[in-house]
Amino acid sequence: SWMAQSILAGRSIESGMLFHGSLAKEAPKDQKAHQLYFEVEDSILDYDAAWPRFDELMATIFLDNFEISSKDARGRMFDSDVYDATVMVPISADGVADSILIEGKVRGALSDGVRVLTETPLLEATSNMAVGWRAQGEMSGSAKLNLPIGPRAERGEPTWAEVNVDLAGADLTMANFDLDFTDIQGQLRYESNSALSSKGFTARLFEQDVLGTIMSTGNANAGEIVVTMDGRVAAAYLYRSSDQPLLSRADVQ
Predict the structure, then answer these.
(1) Could you read off the pLDDT of 22-47 as tens digits, one per residue?
(2) Which residues pair with residue 38 across a beta bridge?
(3) DSSP characters over 161-188
């Protein structure tokens, strides 16, 4: 049922099937074994309604009694390239699938990364923090997703995600905080259990160079994200950004 709903388009270049067992419908399932493969192109895989679909997908898909899988798949997510992707749907002995496991690499515009933060379940997991953000520049990175389907989805289990993004000179405007970061260099990481983090990044803020780290306390459902930055900046810039009255009387010598 997941395949019927998720595969919206595509063309099979080559396919094959191996079947062993009785063809009789009433024959027990454990007496039948099958293996199929499909080499596909120009496919659209809408694997989960809450996450961006894959377009222009090229992959070889394998199916048997125990799993649906694909390795070295490539395609597009939003306007970014996805490559070296692996997709697996384990199937239990009872013929039930409850998980979609996706792992792959991505490169493209940082604005697509902001879209992932604002147009997927990460929106609630990050407390809507990225709403109104604007980004320019390129990104590259990797992602792992564990998406619940079937019984797990019916129980309301959340999606688990691990996303790593490498930035090399990107710009980011956080309108809700009145902050403009330029020339960002470093890696950002999001993981469902530990939220957003970065061991270190550099950027220009208030026209000065800064060195920063990101740490999240609590978890993705409750806590806070702490951004620590070291650098030198005029008090007037901080006042305009924070509206703290004390800074209106301060000056840096």
Answers:
(1) 888 788 877 788 899 999 999 998 87
(2) 15, 61
(3) EEEEEEEEEEEEEEGGGTEEEEEEEEEE
